[in-house]
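Sorry to interrupt, but I need a hand with the structure work. I would like you to pick a protein and set down its sequence and fold. Please put the record directly below this note.
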Amino acid sequence: MAARATVDRAIASGVPVRSIYLDVLTPAMHRLGVLWEEARIGIADEHLATAITQGVLATLHRRLPRTPPATAPDPGRVAPVAVLGCGPEDLHGLGARMVGDFLEAAGWRVMDLGANAPAEAFAATADVHGAALVAVSSSRAEDLAGLSAVRRAIDRLDRPPLLAVGGLAHAGSPTVAAAVGADLFAPDPAALIALLHPAPTGRAAP
């Protein structure tokens, strides 16, 4: 597969795996979405590009550096649980999958519900597995109503998890995320990891 071979050569030449996620695949998929919305590519092109990216991610995620977090939302849990996916009516699951790869690399156990997941599915899965985090990716502005439904569903749990959101629907604005009741907004997977596990601070060396 040409795309996978290209990624392999990039890694062999010293390109960090995180950069391939954040600086290559993410903007490429964003561009694909724009082309689709502008009707400059057809559904076959969109599906083919998505399938190619899925194939690349199938092998790439194993190469992400594993960095167990120094802190965890629940100190008593060795591997905190995150439930993630796309909300109701959102069919674009690649962004959520990338988030899942970064969470696993950071020591989380991930339950990925995929695309078009009902709000109650997030809540039910979080309840069964004692999740500390629900992360929802949204690609279109019209999908934001589904995020509010997820917020209401998880708030009915005895121990509601944090709700983190991201994706093109937010247009890079934390204000949009706050309007649907999110606890955390992250424009990309690395930003979410930084929010969940900030680098330790201490006194500067003399």
Observations:
- The beta strands are 81-86, 109-112, 133-137, 162-166, 184-185.
- Residues 26 and 95 are 8 Å apart (CA to CA).
- Confidence is low (pLDDT under 50) at residues 70-74, 201-206.
- The chain has two domains: 2-63, 81-196.
